[in-house]
Each structure stands twice: as C-alpha cells, then as structure tokens.
Specification:
Elements (H helix, E strand, L loop, with lengths): L5 H21 L2 E6 L6 E3 L8 E3 L11 E6 L3 H11 L14 E5 L4 E2 L2 E2 L2 H17 L4 H18 L8 H32 L32 H9 L10 E6 L7
Amino acid sequence: MDQWTPDEVDAHVQFMRDFAARLEETGEFVDTQALAPDGAFVRYDGEGRPPVTDGPFVETKDLIAGWYIIDVESWDRAVQLAGELSAAPGPGGKPIYEWLEVRPFLARLAHGHRVNEPLLRDLVPAVIGVLVRRGADFAAAEDAVQDALVVAVRVWPENPPRDPKGWLITVARRKFLDAARADTSRRHREVRVEGEPMPGRGTALRRSRPISAQPPRTRPPHATGRTAQRAATQLSGGRQAFTAREAETISLVPSRSGD
C-alpha cells in the first residue's frame, strides 16, 4: 500500500469500515484489528537467560496485516464473507482479489457437543514431535498440526476417534505432504518461467536452480497470530459468546505483491 495514492488508500480503508458496519447490523461482528508491519520473532533461551529475539520479520511471501473476528452460523457463511472482503479496492479502484485465510476457533461447539480442548492441547506437542522426527522442520510440522486440529474440531464431535493421537498424526502427516507437494510444484513452475526466453531480440539464457528436497516453512510461526495450541489455551477462559454459535475468524494475509 506504500505505492498507492492517498485516494486509493482512503477508498480501501472506507471499504473495510463499511464492511465492519454491515456485520454489526447483522450481529455477526465481534472485532477487527490492524497490525503494524514491524515486529520480531521471540523464543525461550533457557533458565536464567533473557528471551531471544530475531527481528524485524524476515522477508516472507505473506504478511498478516490484521484480522476480523466474526460470529456466524456456518463455515459457508464465513467463506462467503471472506470472499466479499477479498474484493476490497486497490490501485485504480479495482478489486485486489487478495487471498484471505479463514480459521475457526477451537473452542466452538458442534451440534451441541464440545471438543475435548484439554486433550487437544496435550496432544499437540507430541504430534509435532512425531512429524519432526519423520523429517518435517518445526514450522512446517506446526502448520500441519494446526490444519489437522481444524479438521478434528469439525469431525470429532460426531465421530470421535478411538485413537485421538494416531488420528491427529495421520491427518497432520497428510497435510504436511500436501503442503510439501504444492510447494515443490510451485518451485518447478518458477524454474520453468525463469527459463523462458524474454520477449524481444537476442537469445535468452536458460537459468535453473536446484530444488531442495526439504520443504520450506510454509508460514513463519507468527503468521496465524497464534498456534492452535495457544489459541485453545487463550480461548478456554475467554469469550463466552462463542459458545452459543459457531465462531469463525478471518485473518487478512495480503501478499507483498499487493502492497
């Protein structure tokens, strides 16, 4: 957005405000926040040592700009609203068609039965550890487990597994492999594009680069705003309004190419 004109920025912000006002009228609005572009990674460094920080954020393809929290009746309604928000205007007043990430809260209810939150929180570190031992880096394993937890929230209330840990490992492993394959395909496409001749006179030199077998981090740990484990922990003693209806969260993840 730093390359947009002031009028384009104002139009974009006004669209967001109007969107929130419409959600307030329907009773679906809970909260919205924008995030500053600056920040840092932080981790524990051992007993008696100060936390380690690594910042500002490394260059990434995606960057969280902010979020909406909405209280809706169904997943389909959350997806519908995210699609409408994706049409926010950008340069020239045209829709930016930005990809938005939609995630449900773990503490939601499904058909009147609550998911066993303490069990999920206890299983997360063990499942991440299994994926790491099987070759995933920590960030990719964490992302895969978060995706598996979302599936668990939808499936377990009606069909609880006999072996919850084994179920999570299987689903998380599939999510990890899907993400790795998608990233490898993307990298192959990038190599092919780089090798295509440039328009105009002359001969283009074919360029290629090796593709690492190790899948890269699909998102930095901060990208979702919290891990699934932390989300469940925060929500345990939090807002009670979400127990009445299914709560979905829309995280705004504009790519740097759209700035």
